[in-house]
Design a protein that fits this description.
single chain; mainly alpha; 74% helix
Length: 292
């Protein structure tokens, strides 16, 4: 099916606006992380009655991973370059590739194993011009965000029936966890308030809602590869809003990721829609698993 993959790509587009939005805000990392998550929690709580339920232990664990992902990413953006933060967080597909067979019993297909090096090659080329040494603490936090993001992807896939619960409670946990230092920051301007509303409603709330819809019918490995569209688009918004031009290697790497994303989207949809001739898909060989 094509629709679940389009949901995931739409989520990646929304996520990619974070870097430019953070640059436009004068708020601290704690203020941005707390404010956008609390706004997202409120919006999701109002929009999805199913998300107001008490989470199970499994859903609560996924919510913790989600909260760590969104908070650590914002903090990393303030302590290291945006390129470093995005690149290190987007190492998540590596962890998903390793953990998916163990935690989800979803063995990566041959086409997914072939696609992973292509995506990672494009990702590495994309940041040749931008990665900078130093800023060790920020880089380590960004790497931790990538690990948390991998567990969020795996968790949302495993607990798809409680996805809305995870999003509501995950945002609530994220917002409350850094609320105390956030209250110590300076008074937000009108631009800061508008940026927080955008980040909370669209970049976080709507994006993860779309991702949750897509991950229900898309294997975790494939979903983690499709969201690599995010680092390609992030500098596009930065260029439009802040005038930062991507380097030549970034253009080559971005082109590889875009082509690989189109390939995986079309191939995954075709495999899901066309099971093997003469066979009936089982629970272990459902179309969404891309069994080839």
């Amino acid at each position: 099916m094509l629709r679940p993959r389009l949901y995931i790509l739409a989520a990646a587009v929304l996520w990619s606006t974070a870097g430019a939005a953070v640059k436009l805000s004068s708020l601290s990392a704690y203020q941005i992380a707390s404010g956008r998550s609390l706004i997202a929690a409120l919006v999701l709580w109002l929009a999805f009655p199913a998300g107001r339920k008490r989470p199970s232990l499994r859903a609560l664990g996924v919510a913790v991973a989600y909260a760590a992902t969104v908070v650590l990413f914002i903090i990393a953006n303030k302590l290291t370059t945006a390129a470093n933060a995005i690149f290190l967080q987007d190492t998540a597909p590596l962890y998903v590739l390793l953990l998916s067979p163990l935690l989800l019993r979803e063995k990566p297909s041959r086409s997914e194993l072939m696609a992973a090096p292509i995506f990672l090659l494009g990702l590495s080329l994309f940041f040749v011009d931008q990665l900078q040494p130093g800023q060790l603490l920020g880089n380590m936090i960004a790497l931790a965000s990538g690990v948390a993001f991998a567990f969020t992807i795996l968790g949302l896939r495993a607990a798809s029936s409680e996805g809305q619960v995870v999003l509501v409670w995950g945002n609530l946990l994220a917002g409350v966890s850094v609320l105390v230092p956030a209250l110590g920051g300076h008074t937000p301007t009108a631009v800061d308030v508008g940026t927080l509303i955008f980040l909370g409603v669209f970049q976080l709330g709507l994006a993860y809602t779309l991702f949750n819809l897509g991950i229900r019918e898309t294997p975790a490995v494939e979903a983690s590869l499709l969201i690599l569209l995010e680092p390609v688009l992030n500098p596009v918004w930065t260029f439009i809003l802040a005038g930062e031009r991507p380097g030549p290697w970034a253009l080559v790497g971005g082109g590889i990721i875009l082509l690989a994303t189109a390939w995986r989207t079309v191939l995954g949809a075709r495999r899901a829609a066309s099971p093997a001739p003469g066979s009936t898909p089982t629970a272990e060989e459902s179309p969404a698993r891309d069994p080839k």
